[in-house]
Amino acid sequence: MVVDLPVPLTATLAELFAADPSRAERYVVTAGDLRIDYSKQPVDDAIIAGLLAAAEAAGVAARRDAMFAGERINVTEDRAVLHTALRLPEGASLVVDGVDVVPGVHAVLRAMGAFAERIRSDARYTDVVNIGIGGSDLGPAMASRALATFGHPRLRFHFVSNVDGADIDGVLRQVQAESTLVIVASKTFGTIETLTNARTARAWLVDALGEEAVADHFVAVSTNADKVAAFGIDTANMFGFWDWVGGRYSVDSAIGLALMIQVGPDAFGEFLAGFHTVDEHFRTAPPAANAPFLLGMIGALHAGPYGRATKAVLPYSQELGRFPAYLQQLDMESNGKQVMLDGQPVAGDTGPIVWGEPGTNGQHAFYQLLHQGTRVVPADFIGFATPNHPYREQHDLLMANLFAQAEALAFGRANPAEPYRNFPGDRPSTLILANRLTPSVLGQLIALYEHIVFVQGALWGINSFDQWGVELGKELANRITPELTGTPAPDQHDSSTNAAITWYREHRA
Length: 509
Description:
Blueprint: H1 13-19, H2 23-26, E1 28-31, E2 34-37, H3 45-58, H4 60-69, E3 95-96, E4 99-100, H5 102-121, E5 127-131, H6 135-146, E6 156-160, H7 165-172, E7 180-185, H8 192-209, H9 214-217, E8 218-221, H10 225-231, E9 238-239, H11 257-263, H12 265-284, H13 291-303, E10 310-315, H14 323-335, E11 353-355, H15 367-372, E12 379-384, H16 392-411, E13 429-434, H17 439-460, H18 471-480, H19 495-507
Parallel strand pairs: 5-6, 5-7, 7-8, 8-9, 10-11, 10-12, 12-13
Antiparallel strand pairs: 1-2, 2-13, 3-4
Helix pairs in contact: 3-13, 4-17, 5-11, 6-11, 6-14, 11-12, 12-17, 13-17, 14-17
């Protein structure tokens, strides 16, 4: 169903604030520990009402309820979408196809917890290497960096994803085989990049310690016991999950094993509880006070009537340095679609291009374009009142920069005499604040963006939970790989690709 969004405002942000002295108090919503200020977005009461009416017309709330109930809303793969079940508390119940999934979730969590405690208490281990790709890497790697303050003091964590051999080579040069645990994260245990890197790590370990060491130094996050066993991993050290967990929604599943080892089972439980807090907010809060509804619809206003193709995520937190990259996959793999659920083309643009870097580094890189460029880029600023380090003066300076940038973008500064010093302002942003970056707050942040993506996908009538767009490149890569070193000759492609393959064969060392 195609719905119409409100016509954009002609008033500037400065004019909106001047006309409504209470704006800064009224356009704030709380979700768990998150204070979300959207007063610097180009909306007024009429626009908000129009956006919420469009959400109602599109059936966003009904689709949300269907997701939480375990209905098969991922219609192109005939699957339920139940990442929210991964953080349901023990004792809750969610029956899907006649089976209560919650006991199974907590059985895996208990097994993960026992294993994590064993590694944390075993002084032999100093390093953990997580091998995955996509959601099996971006989630754990982002969260590991974000929660390093809460990590075990003896253990170091490394993440390998790129099939470029430089990635795993750089990690293996830092670690010793006898003190390293390797986690191979692949649902099917058939992802070519992950298995190629895993075989490299296995050969490295066997060369140093012998074949029998594989069982002690490798574990798997997978559902394919036969392939795991054939690799040499004891299936007692295999942690599974379900087909209703998409890769980019899986950091709170067994894919988060490295994170649980790092922070411990109790802190990982707090992480899950943070997700659940925002899940419940999204599930129960009325749309006018519902953060994912409001931010999702405002984002759709930018992508649609305003024609703003990108969105910057700007955490003023070095610990969240990988958060924009994590959100790139979450948003762009989910809503980068051109076909609706009924197979018809979408009527306009869908998911934005998501990018960003931590402040204040970004200020000395791309903020020039944000302030004075010809493109308007909506931005999300994220900050914390209390740092996870003792350097209060630096944190105050960091937060001063955050508040200053949001103000400057919104209100600018006129300078008619020197046009190159003129800041037009009227650049929208959302400010997301919390007291401190903790495991719970990180879970809340991730869940907030998961549900924003959901709201927009539901509005646009697309399936946010498949990713067929990654398949064609994989198929062609598998076809080209043998052509680089043997036969058949590279004459089955377009002339440009054939020429590139020929050049590579001639120059390959």
